[in-house]
Amino acid sequence: MWIKIKDNGTGVSEEIISQIFYSSFTTKSVGKGTGLSISRQIMEETQGDSLTCSSVLGEKTGFTIALHLA
Asked: Which residues lie across from 63 on neighbouring strands?
């Protein structure tokens, strides 16, 4: 099963997309915003699922969650 979520914002740069799942990366102030790396780790390591992000600068950003159903 696939779940796709898209926003209606202005997208993010390729530089940010390439770092978005790193545990130390955030665009927020210090001590805020490390949830994406933790979310991806939980999904991939414990569930065998996946979480990906795609974006086009000037357009929307989207996340795709792929769930492996038994």
From this structure: 5, 53
